[in-house]
Write a structure and sequence with these properties.
The chain is built from three helices and eleven strands, in the order E-E-E-E-H-E-E-H-H-E-E-E-E-E. It is α+β, with helices and mostly antiparallel strands and about 180 residues long. The protein is elongated and about 60 Å long. The termini are far apart.
Amino acid sequence: MSTEMKPTKHFTLTRFFGGTERGVCLQLTDRERAVNPPYFSLTKSDALELAAALVQFANDTLPGDDTPAPASPTKPRRMTFNNVVQGDLVTLSYRGHGVECKFLGFTDNSEKYSEKPRFAKALHLKDWAQCKTWGQLEQKQADDHEEYGYHFHAIFEEEDGSTFGAYLFKGAWCVGSSADRASLS
């Protein structure tokens, strides 16, 4: 049995069972170009490996890529959850406290309390979820899962290597059990 997943601009995605040896697989089919064959299949481990490489490519950090990274802007940008990019060193502030940390990325809401970044920046997450605002993303989160814990998270790493996540609450990114509003600088 196969399941058609949400297509991208150039590919259709089909989840299928690849047998007991391969398990659940994903087939990508090129919707525009006449290639032969127009599809290829991935196991879950293949998909994870490819996803990691694609995130590195999107962030200009793919090993062996000799293309120079874009020049950093001469004027520093005001850091927000909308423009933070995977790898940025930031100060996450809440209730008068500031935590120096590295932004690791945004999760999707497929795993309970996930700390596995899937998206390097907000634009990627919002495009994937077909949302334009944090409020819309929070509503999608509520529509997708009734059980608590299946949230979109912004994941950060402290200097000691520990990780923590901010979560959406009332259209804003928050931390802690008291939903303290967080900001970045």
